[in-house]
Each structure stands twice: as structure tokens, then as C-alpha cells.
Amino acid sequence: MCEEAVKPASPRRRGRPRVELRRLGRAALLGPAARHRVPDAIEHVAKAHRAHHPGADLEPLRRAYLLAESSHRGQTRKSGEPYITHPLAVTLILAELGAETTTLTASLLHDTVEDTAVTLAQVGGEFGEEVRFLVDGVTKLEKVEYGSAAEPETFRKMLVATGNDVRVMSIKLADRLHNMRTLGVMRREKQVRIAEVTRDVLIPLADRLGVQALKTELEDLVFAVLQPEDCARARAVAREHAVGAGSLSAAAEQIRAVLREAGITAEVLIRPRHLVSVHRVGLKRGGLTATDLGRLLVLVTEDADCYAVLGELHTCFTPVISEFKDFIATPKFNLYQSLHTAVVARSGGEVAEVLIRTRRMHRVAEAGVVALGNPYAPGTDGAPSADTADGERADPTRPGWLSRLLDWQQATPDPDAFWASLRADLAEDREITVFHGAGRTLALPAGSSCVDAAYALHGDAAHTCIGARVNGRLAALGTVLADGDALDLLMAQDPAAGPSPEWLEHARTPAARIAISGWLRAHPAGPAEPDAAGPAAPGAVTRGQAPPVAGSARSGAARDAAPPGAAGPGGRITLLAEAFGGPHLLADLTEAIAREGAAVVSAEVEPPHEQRVRHTYTVELTDPAGLPSLIRAMRDVPGVYDVSRVRWPAGGAAPVRVTEPPAGAVT
Cα–Cα distance between 639 and 578 in angstroms, integer? Predict the structure, then answer.
């Protein structure tokens, strides 16, 4: 086991000594201070808080500490320290990240309702509804009542509360960080269990909320418990190359000189990689150099200065273009903004990675939603404020990933299924943005398909989805979406339409999988056959081998129900297209049909034979005179060598091909 698992390293804070738990314990045991005076035990919290919020009112913190200290008096942690040292340490973590007073007040009280006689009503009566809500959000459910389901149900409760106030999760993350720092006093098996939950749930949540300072330390502490040998090797590599850190210092000095000459005011710092990052980079590159153990951070004042710095670096040094990323123009879903690049140092030829950001961006990169203060503070119109006092973008009250998570968790009453789905959902660490409608955006996990998008947009109404257009072209519902894709979903008019079991193969998100599985359980026989005289569904439904437009449970029934001859104001007819096989043939044919104003009722693709395929379409024409034009348009599709009309004689006889009718004739 790595040393940190037993003697956790202190957080990297320049100019601020680590607060020792024993000193906190002694201060706590001295009892309350004089009235209206900040107790010695929270003096360090007050200083850290005032560093970010100079005008903060410390009275709520004083009163919260007095209640917490008196309530926890006599309780000790497994390490032997007075229990009050835990809420004090959690509050200090949040204070150093810049949390506002309400969050710190709730943090001091976060274990009182769970572990003492204090009630939520008391907390609310003395400190207000916001503090009461935050404390309730992080209070665990009783194992006596919930048994083995206590942990997953506690997280479910916490996530629901986070959906209303993201500060709930901020307190939980700081709470888990302090527990991980002091995990060495636990039995090995309990260390492993706590570390695994931290890895699978808390670290992804810290990342999604943008709290990188907590995420990186949690990663290293988990690394020490779960991969002690790899952790020891990473530490040894870091020590081995520490003597070569001068190369990064030299590169930093070269960059400072370039920026001074250009008249750009900037601070250039060396950012050492944490142990997990060292391990990952070593695996990726097969070895490490001194410059791989850290990155250069350039801090400026204005957004425009970031691009000015980038221009100077790419002019005066040789850039590694493949390493350039602009997260200022396109911020990450967790609020992160920065320019990333890499340049070749003038001496030695080593590559140095460089991060360029404003100081405001740096605060948000380190502390995420914690740095935004209270994102729910009402503006002048009574609505949640869109910006903080200094103009930075506030965190949305319901991030897209959190909305999706809350939606599917409601449909998962079973605690074990919820726990498994939560871990699977959080395992995906990237998001993409898809455009739909009139320029609206939808955030989805990377790897999501059109099926996932349909359920994210329409919920259970997505059961009637029968196709999609991606970037203007017809595509299978199983098509994996890429960042920036434009999506248009095609929905059936028939409310009896429903998904097929194959949709589960394309569904990546828990929301889609849960909805599809629920529908299939409720409809074991599949969707009801549509009324033959009813309206045709827009788009394509198919069966047979995997076609470009996704299959639907309606496909076979819709084809078999297609009536021989006309229906509705126009006509319903069947066309047979024969072609040489191609990867986009069905999509191209269906698109040609759509351009002619016809609606596809159903489509069947036969297995290829000697590199040739047969597609049978039943289509609805609004204008019978358009049939010849439709057939010609289908024949113009590359690879198609014949299109003909198919009639369905009465009595169940085999279909008969007929020649192309003259204009205006629909029989």
C-alpha cells in the first residue's frame, strides 16, 4: 500500500500550512469561545473563507460550529481524534475551494442529524431552509431500515437532492475526500470497498461537476488502495525524474521571456502531474521523460490574452499541432475552459505541454461548481442568476447529464439495478453535443446512438420512432452519433408502434435501455398491427438483415398489413427495387422516395444473392400522378438497375410484377 493510504498527503496549497487534526481536537475540547467571537477551532476555516469572500458574515459559521461541537462532544473517530475534527476538516476543504457561507454552514452540520440527537427541524429553524436541505441531502439512510439497499438508496436520495441543489454533492465529495485521507485506520477489506465506490461513483461525479482539485486527490488515494504496486512504481518514477525537472523550468523561463518581449502580462507555473496521471502517461507512451511529469500553466487576465499567448508560442516555438485543443471556444460539459497545446523547447528538443487560461478559468477548473458560489441566488427578476458577480458563467441548475440520470433512476425502483446502472452511466467520461430542432442542443454520453437521443428527447414517446436523419441523410437508429451531428428523428403516427428487441443492442444510456425493456415486458407479443385503413407512418420501417434504417417491431406487421391497392386520398402501392449491393443503398432509396413527397409505410430487404439485393417498399402517395416520377427517381439511385410495381392479387396469391404505368394511372 502506498504511504498516502496510511499517512495521507496534505492538499497542495501554497503558503498555507496543513492543519493538524490533533490541534483541531485540542481546540475543540477547550469548549466554546466568548459570545460573538470566532472559536479558535474554526479560525483557519474563517481565514480561508475570507480569502475568497472578504465581506462574508462569519456569524452562521460560529453558531454552526458551536452546535456541531456540542452535539458531537464525546464522540471519537476510529483514529482517536474527537469527531468534531471531521466536519471541521470537510469544511476547510470547501473553504479553500471558495465555497460560500451557506455551504460551509451545512458542512459543519452535515453529520449532526445522522449521528447525534439534532433534528432537521432544529437545523432548519436555526439556520434556514437552504442549510436544512443541504444537510438532509447528505444524511445517510438507516441500515436498520434499508438493509443492504441503504448505500444505493442513500446515493439515489443524494442525487435527487443534487438535482435541486448541486451544493449537496460538493459537501459529499469533500466528506469522502477527508474519509479517504484517513482511510488507513480501517480494515483492509473496508478500505477496498470504500475505494471502489469512490472510484466508480464519487470520482466521476467530481469530474462532471468540474471539481478537479478534489477529483485528482481522490484518484491518487484510490490508486494507493486498489493498485498499491502501480502506485509505488509511479512514485519511484516521479522521484527518479525529479532531478531532471530543470528542463521544465528552462522551458518555463523561455516562455516567460517570449511573453515579456511581446508585452503580454502572464504568470507561468509548473504543474506537476499527480500519481495517477504519471501512471497513465507512462502506459500510453511506454516510458517517461522529465517533461512528461508536469505541464506548464500560463495564467492571464482576459480571454483575448489566451489567444495572444497561443499565437506567440506557436510563432516562437515549434508547436505539436496534434496536441492543440480549444476548450475556451467549446467548453467541456463540466465547465472546464482552457487552451491546450504542446511546443518543442529550444534547448534539448523536449516537448512541453502547456495550458493557457485566465485566472477566472483557473478557479473554475480547480473548483468547478464550488467556485460559482450560490448558482441559485435570485437575480433582479427573481429568477436564478445566469452569471456571478464578476460575469463568469454560472452552473446550470440542472446539467444535462444530471437530468438524464434523474430521469432514468425514477424508472429503476430496484436498488441493485439502480446501483449497477449508476456505475455504468458514470463510467462514461465524455459527452457529445448533438443539434436538433431549430438549433437546439442535446448533450449525450459519447457513444450514444439515435436510439439514445430519441429517448433523451421524447421519453416514452420515443417508442414510436421509426428512423432518423443525421446531417441530412437517412440513418439507422443504431447509428452512433458524433460531436456536432445534426439530428432529425422520424416518428410514426401510429400510437401502437413500439421498439423491437434489437433496439437494446443500440441503446447505450440507462434511460433508453430501461424504457425499451419496460415496453417489451409490457408487450410480449409486440406492437398491435396497425389498421389497414389508418394513416401511413412517415419514414422507413424495415426487417431482414441489418439495413441502414433501423428495424422496428412494427416492420413485419406493417408489411403484412399493407393493403393491395389504394388507400386514403392518394394511393398505397408496393414497389420492388433491384440493385447491386451497397453500404448506403437503403438510405439512398428511402431518401429518394422522401424527396418525391411519398411516405414509406414499410420496407423489406431480402438477403443479398450474388451481390444483388431486392428492396420491397410499400408507399403512400398523396398525388397518384407522381408515381412515374417516383419510379424514375428510385432508378436514378446509384446501383439500382430496375424498379417495378408489384400488385397483390386477392386470395393470397403471389405478388405479380407489372410494368410502369402511364402518368396519372394508379390502379
Answer: 9
Write down the catalytic residue from 114, 253, 387, 560.
Answer: 114
pLDDT for 531: 39
Residue 118 CA to residue 301 CA, distance in Å, equals 46
* Mean pLDDT across the chain: 80
**For the whole model, what pTM was predicted?**
0.68
- Specify whether 114 is catalytic: yes
Identify the helix (H) or strand (E) that includes residue 355: strand 351-358
| Euclidean distance between CA atoms 659 and 568, whole angstroms | 23
Q: Are strands 473-475 and 465-470 parallel, antiparallel or unpaired?
A: antiparallel
Per residue in 526-582, pLDDT tens? 665 443 333 333 733 333 333 333 333 333 333 333 333 343 445 788 899 988 777
Asked whether 487 and 434 are in contact (CB, 8 A), the reply is: yes
By percentage, how much of the chain surpasses pLDDT 90?
40
Sign of CA dihedral 147, 148, 149, 151: positive
Q: Would you give the end-to-end CA distance of the chain in angstroms?
A: 81
Which amino acid type is present at position 300?
A: V
Q: Which residues pair with 329 in a beta bridge?
A: none
Q: Residue 48: count other Cβ atoms within 10 Å of its Cβ.
A: 23
- Backbone φ and ψ of 230, nearest 5°: -65, -35
Calculate ∠ Cα 283-289-291, nearest 5°. Answer: 110
- Asked whether 218 and 206 are in contact (CB, 8 A), the reply is yes
Instruction: Identify whether the C-beta of residue 412 lies closer than 8 Å to the C-beta of residue 514.
Output: yes
Q: Tens digit of pLDDT for each residue in 375-398?
A: 666 543 333 443 433 333 334 445
Distance separating alpha carbons of residues 262 and 379, to the nearest angstrom = 41
C-alpha torsion angle, residues 358, 363, 368, 371 (rounded to 10): -130
3-state secondary structure 415-455: HHHHHHHHHHHHHCCCEEEEEECCCEEEEEECCCEHHHHHH
**Quick one: what percent of the chain has pLDDT higher than 70?**
78
Place of cell 407522381: 626
SS3 596: coil
Among the listed residues 3, 40, 43, 115, the single catalytic one is 115
Q: How far apart are CA 426 and CA 422, in angstroms?
A: 6
CB 183 within 8 A of CB 191: yes
Q: Count CA atoms closer than 13 A to 411's CA, side-chain side.
A: 18
CB 606 within 8 A of CB 544: yes
Q: How many Å apart are CA 507 and CA 432, to the nearest integer?
A: 16
Mean per-residue pLDDT, 20-29: 52
Contact 337, 361 (CB under 8 A): yes
3-state secondary structure of 394: coil
What does the DSSP 8-state code read for residue 81? S
Place of cell 464578476: 390
Give me the DSSP letters along 183-199: GGGS-HHHHHHHHHHII
Q: Give how far the C-alpha of residue 50 lies from the chain's centroid of Cα atoms, to the nearest Å.
A: 33
The answer to whether residue 323 is catalytic is no
Reduced 3-state DSSP string for 490-538:
EECCCCCCCCCCCHHHHCCCHHHHHHHHHHHHHCCCCCCCCCCCCCCCC
Spell out the residues 6+ positions from residue 59 whose beta carbon is closer than 8 angstroms to its own. Answer: 36
CA-to-CA distance for 430 and 446, rounded, in angstroms?
5
Cα–Cα dist 506/513, whole Å: 9
Between 502 and 562, the more confident residue is 502
The residue length of the chain stands at: 667
Q: 543-561 b/e with 16+ CB inside 10 Å = b?
A: bbeebbbbbbbbbbbbbeb
pLDDT for residue 382: 38
CB 61 within 8 A of CB 108: yes
